[in-house]
Amino acid sequence: MIKAILIFNNHGKPRLSKFYEHYTEDTEQQIIRETFHLVSKRDENVCNFLEGGLLIGGSENKLIYRHYATLYFVFCVDSSESELGILDLIQVFVETLDKCFENVCELDLIFHMDKVHNILAEMVMGGMVLETNMSEIITQAEAHNKMEKSEAGIAGAPARAVSAVKNMNLPEMPKNINIGDISIKVPNLPSFK
Amino acid sequence: MPAPIRLRELIRTIRTARTQAEEREMIQKECAAIRSSFREEDNTYRCRNVAKLLYMHMLGYPAHFGQLECLKLIASQKFTDKRIGYLGAMLLLDERQDVHLLMTNCIKNDLNHSTQYVQGLSLCTLGCMGSSEMCRDLAGEVEKLLKTSNSYLRKKAALCAVHVIRKVPELMEMFLPATKNLLSEKNHGVLHTSVVLLTEMCERSPDMLSHFRKLVPQLVRILKNLIMSGYSPEHDVSGISDPFLQVRILRLLRILGKGDDDSSEAMNDILAQVATNTETSKNVGNAILYETVLTIMDIKSESGLRVLAINILGRFLLNNDKNIRYVALTSLLKTVQTDHNAVQRHRSTIVDCLKDLDVSIKRRAMELSFALVNGNNIRGMMKELLYFLDSCDPDFKADCASGIFLAAEKYAPSKRWHIDTVMRVLTTAGSYVRDDSVPNLIQLITNSVEMHAYTVQRLYKALLDDISQQPLVQVASWCIGEYGDLLVSGQLHCIILHT
Questions:
Q1: With contacts defined as CB-CB under 8 Å, which chain A residues touch B324?
Q2: Residues 5-64 of A with CB under 8 A from B
Q3: What are phi and psi of B468, to 5 degrees?
Q4: By C-alpha distance, which of B157, B164, B204 is closest to B179?
């Protein structure tokens, strides 16, 4: 079982934290800090497995992590999960994020935390692996987004307009349109009573 | 009152904070705004406010006042609201009884919703944080969804069932009929979660285990199809067809085959096939091999297969990838009791791993080395282990010292060698030796009567060099007290000889 999935940056700022077992808010923050402390000490060329910190269950649980540029992806698992399998799972997760956000970077995770949670919910449920097929996950996440957009109503109109314009194939617009001086005579309209 | 700011705005604002105090101030201001918005029962912006609350929660600020708002969102008709509401429920809700009770009805309605995505959301939330009462009330709905033909819902229902069984084990029987044709599914997602469900049931109940043994031929067939099927773009990961499913099936086979001759026999061929045919150039291939090896070692496999498995582990030990080496050492540790001789063949590689730079690998190698020590190799192994004790991190020294004492006690070829080894440990890692070793050492010295003179002289010399290590000082002082006469009675030339 996966106990927790954490993403934080090189300074320990959390970008995503999902716990599949119940802990109090304080304990959760302590676990994040402790995990960052353990993982950031590691060299670049050592193995990606660590014994879990005391707060998350000690030596029975393992921390399996991958370091990509400025982000650490850490899965805390118990002994029933295959370590190499979880490494592959992290890879699939990151590749899925990459496809969904188009060359994902830390900023994407910062501003779209809820979307990342939704993608993760299609992969891991209740601490167990639900789906590992990348195209399946992406299809379902996109279906969810479509449903949200269709509900957005008036509030979503500007966003929809923007994305509609983005997707439109505009022919080449001439840069300088010189209409010249036009004097339009506005007729005097009778007033309506 | 102006519309509450969007989540994006909030994030942007918080990122401009230059100190922790500034950030805290911004968050408190926003929390106050959110609280008053909640008080006004504002339906339009509730979703936005809860989203902001979840963000602040992630950063570590208290957010429990939003719990009831999540419930209101879940009860709303809009998908957008439900989505954030369920997410909030999973992230924020604690074990409060009343909140769970309120949720049960909402989840029940959503489990029967006309839109599959809403059903999916409720299954997900129930499967993540459902309490035992909730699970008891809703198990029937989950069981119904387990039998649906919609594969999106079926796979979620399977994992939800696992959660229900974990919370309320008595309900396991209820899901038995629905498992009948789970394995005939074509959809890999459903297959994967079904195998997880079957694994959970077999691990919990020996009756279920014997009941599901009859599934072994079917599992073997599925595995065979995966290996032989050639390239299938939708499940391919680095050239291997759905490695995650293969690993899951291998694990279930392990549980089913353990202790049972017939099942073990039925899976022998496929295990040999996987072990020899899997590509090892990428991590996914190695993950499958690793699982295969563990399965071979756990079931009643024939000896040829077992030797094959240990040799695979031996190859792993020489792999450049540190993760593979770590995993190999872990598996060898599990098998060293049952297949001691086969593991002995790889002793030199294991001992080399003691010199690895990686702390996790060193620890595994140390444990394995101690397991491999026997009467034949004690001298050689002890040399390596003492060298390791000298150079390893302080975290290891206590365990290493205790291990060395144990090994020396069991296999010491001579009393003099034993005393020398003990002395060596006391002088190199004296301050890390555990307190309970001291009486044992004193006992040992007392019993080796002919060595008293030698021992006390060496201990005295050690004290002359370094008097700071407490266990050493304790043992030495006791000895000098007991055998002081041997020390001073004109045996000085022995000290000079030994220097």
A1: 84
A2: 13-14, 16-18, 20, 22, 24-25, 29, 32, 43, 45-51
A3: -90, -15
A4: B157
Q: Does B134 touch chain A (CB under 8 A)?
A: no
Q: Are B278 and B290 in contact (CB under 8 A)?
A: no
Euclidean distance between CA atoms B154 and B131, whole angstroms: 21
Q: Tokens 């020294």 identify what position?
A: B397
**CA–CA separation, B363 vs B366, rounded Å?**
5
What one-letter code names the amino acid at B30?
Answer: E
Which of B128, B126, B145, B146 minimizes the C-alpha distance to B136? B126
Helix and strand counts by DSSP (H, E) for chain B: 27, 2
Instruction: Output the tens digit of pLDDT for each of chain A's 193 residues.
Output: 999 999 999 999 999 999 998 888 888 899 999 999 989 988 888 889 888 777 777 777 889 999 998 999 999 998 888 889 999 999 999 999 999 998 888 999 998 988 999 999 999 999 999 999 898 999 999 998 888 888 776 555 565 566 566 556 555 555 555 555 555 555 666 655 4
Alpha carbon of residue B356 to chain centroid: 22
Question: Which residues, in sequence order, are CB contacts of B214 under 8 Å at separation 6+?
Answer: none
Residues 6+ apart with CB under 8 A from B201: B165, B172, B175, B176, B179, B208, B212
Using a CB-CB distance cutoff of 8 angstroms, which residues of chain B are in contact with residue A35?
none
Helix axes B394-411, B359-372, angle to 10 degrees: 10
β-strand partners of B237? B240
Residues B200-216: pLDDT tens digits?
999 999 998 989 998 89
ipTM of the complex: 0.78
Determine the 3-state secondary structure of A67 from DSSP.
Answer: strand
Which residues on B lie below 8 Å from A135 (Cβ)? 234
Q: What is the spatial distance between Cα A136 and Cα A119, in angstroms, rounded to a whole number?
A: 11
Angle between helices B97-111 and B116-129 (to 10 degrees): 150
What tens digit of pLDDT does each residue of B352-393 get?
888 888 888 888 899 899 988 888 888 888 888 888 888 888
Chain B from 350 to 369: CB within 8 A of any A CB: 357-361
Q: What is the DSSP string of B63-76?
A: -GGGHHHHHHHHHS
Residues 237-276, chain B: which have Cβ within 8 Å of A?
A: 237, 242-245, 247, 251
| Residue B365: alpha-carbon gap to chain centroid | 18
- Does pTM top 0.90 for this prediction? no
List the structure tokens of B325: 């080496």
Residue of A23, A67, A91, A131 to mutate for B, most B C-beta atoms under 10 A? A131
Distance from C-alpha of B294 to C-alpha of B254, rounded to nearest angstrom: 8
Nearest-Cα distance to chain B for A56, in Å, is: 17
Q: Distance, in angstroms, between B327 CA and closest chain A CA? A: 8
Evaluate the CA torsion angle B72, B76, B78, B79 in order and state its sign.
positive
Min Cα separation A170/chain B (Å): 30
